[in-house]
């Protein structure tokens, strides 16, 4: 009974981490890998009937859908409007909106399909994540200083196909866990001429097909028979990530209208350096 309670509690913690970090430029996958290792929500922990690698991988994918569901809920009005005015009879039709979302998904989608197994094998570990947190933070600081104020596009409805493709290319950086899909999209948006808010909102919509696709691919590989406690943990993690993401996304957009992104970059550097110190002083062992 105690083991099961601890297992559910860990699932709640990971759900909170996912809900907070999925749309912030700090990398949700990276944080789930690090926090999962720190609290023992990983393969090899006893009992192995609960902590199998296949189940942990599946859990991390499924709860990400909880956060994506929060975006669908928050932007339901915008989503339904695109389908009410769908036919491509004018530049801002729903068809063109989703076509540009599709264009932005292509680069990372192609690379992800080709190299997903190799990426999981080599990069889904704490040390590569720590490196990505720091490298991504430095890249954010440079890009914000150089490109943030040079924008012409303030609304996601005004994004061009070319801008969508450029953003999609930058999303490829997020295949390295720890870099952050949100950060990569926003940086790509800055460089292609989007305001920070427009880039962030575009990243939300791009996340819908990207994460659904990634989840389907991952589940096809990691789907495994689960027991009752694992099902409960999965449901609880999903619900928690959904609720937390609802709150975080709204606060994040309000923050971006007033404050610079380097706050998140400094957080990434702090966490990365702190973890390196803990690892090299043997306080934490991954």
UniProtKB/TrEMBL annotation:
Catalytic activity: di-trans,octa-cis-undecaprenyl diphosphate + H2O = di-trans,octa-cis-undecaprenyl phosphate + phosphate + H(+)
Gene Ontology molecular function, alphabetical: undecaprenyl-diphosphatase activity
Keyword annotations of the record: Antibiotic resistance, Cell membrane, Cell shape, Cell wall biogenesis/degradation, Hydrolase, Membrane, Peptidoglycan synthesis, Transmembrane, Transmembrane helix
Documented EC number(s): 3.6.1.27
Keyword Transcription regulation: no
Alphabetical list of InterPro entries matching this protein: UppP
Annotated TM spans: 58-77, 97-116, 123-141, 161-179, 191-217, 229-253, 265-284
Membrane topology: Multi-pass membrane protein
Keyword NAD: no
Localization in the cell: Cell membrane
Its biological purpose: Catalyzes the dephosphorylation of undecaprenyl diphosphate (UPP). Confers resistance to bacitracin.
Family: Belongs to the UppP family.
Miscellaneous note of the record: Bacitracin is thought to be involved in the inhibition of peptidoglycan synthesis by sequestering undecaprenyl diphosphate, thereby reducing the pool of lipid carrier available.
Name by which UniProt lists this protein: Undecaprenyl-diphosphatase
Organism: Clostridium brassicae
């Amino acid at each position: 009974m105690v083991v099961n309670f601890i297992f559910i509690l860990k699932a709640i913690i990971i759900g909170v981490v996912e809900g907070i970090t999925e749309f912030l430029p700090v990398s949700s996958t990276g944080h789930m890998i690090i926090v999962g290792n720190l609290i023992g929500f990983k393969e090899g922990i006893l009992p192995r009937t609960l902590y199998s690698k296949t189940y942990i991988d599946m859990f991390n994918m499924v709860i990400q859908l909880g956060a994506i569901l929060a975006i669908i809920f928050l932007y339901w009005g915008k989503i339904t409007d695109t389908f009410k005015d769908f036919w491509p009879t004018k530049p801002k039709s729903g068809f063109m909106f989703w076509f540009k979302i599709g264009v932005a998904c292509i680069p990372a989608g192609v690379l992800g399909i080709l190299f997903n197994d190799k990426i999981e094998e080599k990069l889904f570990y704490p040390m590569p994540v720590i490196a990505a947190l720091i490298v991504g933070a430095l890249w954010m600081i440079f890009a914000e200083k150089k490109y943030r104020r040079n924008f012409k596009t303030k609304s996601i409805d005004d994004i061009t196909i070319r801008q969508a493709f450029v953003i999609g290319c930058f999303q490829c950086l997020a295949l390295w866990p720890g870099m952050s899909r949100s950060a990569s999209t926003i940086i790509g948006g800055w460089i292609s001429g989007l305001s920070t808010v427009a880039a962030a909102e575009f990243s939300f919509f791009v996340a819908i097909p990207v994460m659904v696709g990634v989840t389907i691919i991952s589940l096809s590989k990691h789907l495994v028979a689960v027991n009752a406690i694992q099902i409960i943990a999965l449901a609880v993690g999903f619900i928690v990530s959904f609720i937390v993401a609802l709150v975080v996304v709204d606060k994040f957009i309000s923050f971006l209208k007033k404050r610079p992104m380097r706050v998140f970059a400094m957080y990434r550097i702090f966490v990365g350096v702190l973890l390196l110190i803990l690892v090299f002083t043997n306080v934490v062992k991954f």
